[in-house]
Design brief:
With 361 residues, this protein is an alpha+beta fold. 42% of the residues lie in helices and 13% in strands. The protein contains 12 helices and 10 strands.
Length: 361
């Protein structure tokens, strides 16, 4: 199967991978013949990339980062806790989170087990899901990215649990932001932006008083918008003043934000998101953490069409663990001409690099 832009798909193409919403409910089953009305509806829902069947790549299977039952459980756990926190204004926020902490810790264990059992790089394409509330999906994605980084950095089980809690709860302060500002489609005013920024301190105040939540996890909420050069918020702290977990979640947070659809812009592809991180390496983000991220996360997901430096065109067929920028590629075109497909492994063909992606059908 191949990953292509929804807008480029022609009538009659066959959907290669089932499309779900963020709760794991099926929106459109694999094998469906795509008609114009389906494609328009997917675009309207913010699904701008889909997998389609393709004769030359029909044996390329795309695995989910975590199984659908775990995703469903995760989304329900996060949503139930956050919504309760938002609604029960006269109940201590720390009490709501304290009751959910046991479920969060179990969830982290499940996610770690799945990431560890997957021998490939972590593949997360937020854009092939539709979601009702960005914050819940974002919290789950940031947790998966953060744990993948933590595993790459060889953190201890206890450290991974604390990092996971900090990641799940890093945006919990947004539940204290008025919805008309939080979900605003247009540009924020300066006053509204300052209110949005207050979520870091709000989250810290909720978590620091919550039994069962380590203070470091509270600081993850406090520090995930801080930057090495002091240009972040809320305190403008620098370098070693920022906890390593805050630095990890900052990388995961930015990457997921730019590779997810928002009301004000379309999602970037993973390799474009990595370029954003590289642009801030050493000044905004910790270079060692970006390197750990690059080692753990698939930058060119299976099924995406790529152009190689020698002019050949192919489809990513397999990941190479620890070498996110050097996957195996199924060559489908040479010198502008379609050919009988064959494999090239960029792990061994070191003189060849990927120069561009082509997501048109």
């Amino acid at each position: 199967m191949r990953l292509v832009t929804t807008a480029s798909v022609i009538n009659g193409a066959i959907l290669g991978k089932t499309i779900y919403n963020d709760r794991g409910q099926i929106l459109l089953n694999a094998g469906v013949e795509l008609e114009a009305k389906f494609l328009r509806r997917l675009e309207d829902m913010g699904i701008h990339y889909i997998y389609v069947e393709d004769r030359k790549t029909d044996d390329i299977n795309v695995k989910d980062a975590i199984s659908m039952p775990i995703r469903q459980k995760a989304m329900k756990t996060i949503e139930d806790s956050f919504v309760r926190l938002q609604k029960e204004k006269f109940v201590s926020g720390s009490f709501v989170i304290e009751k959910a902490t046991k479920d969060f810790k179990a969830l982290i264990t499940y996610i770690l087990t799945e990431i560890k059992s997957n021998q490939d790089l972590l593949v997360l394409l937020s854009d092939v899901y539709t979601y009702d509330h960005y914050i819940f999906t974002h919290s789950l994605n940031v947790t998966m990215y953060s744990l993948a980084i933590g595993l790459e950095m060889k953190l201890s089980p206890k450290e991974l649990e604390t990092l996971g809690l900090g990641a799940i709860l890093h945006d919990v302060g947004k539940m204290r932001i008025p919805e008309n500002i939080l979900l605003k489609c247009g540009k924020l005013t300066e006053e509204e932006y300052q209110i949005i920024k207050s979520h870091a301190d709000e989250g810290f105040q909720i978590l620091r008083n919550t039994p069962g939540v380590p203070l470091i996890a509270a600081h993850c909420a406090f520090q995930h918008h801080e930057r090495l050069n002091g240009s972040g918020y809320p305190r403008g702290i620098t370098g070693k003043e920022i906890h390593d977990f805050g630095k990890i979640i900052a990388v995961a947070d930015v990457f997921d934000a730019v590779t997810s659809n928002r009301v004000y812009r379309r999602a970037m592809l993973p390799h474009e998101g990595l370029e954003i991180l590289y642009a801030g390496s050493g000044s905004l983000f910790d270079s060692k953490i970006i390197e750990a991220f690059r080692q753990a996360v698939a930058i060119y997901p299976e099924g995406i069409t790529v152009m190689l430096s020698d002019g050949r065109k192919g489809v990513v067929s397999r990941q190479n663990k620890g070498l996110s920028e050097r996957p195996a590629v199924r060559i489908i075109e040479e010198n502008g001409m379609e050919i009988e497909p064959y494999e090239v492994d960029l792990k061994t063909e070191l003189h060849i690099v990927i120069t561009a992606c082509d997501t048109t059908f």
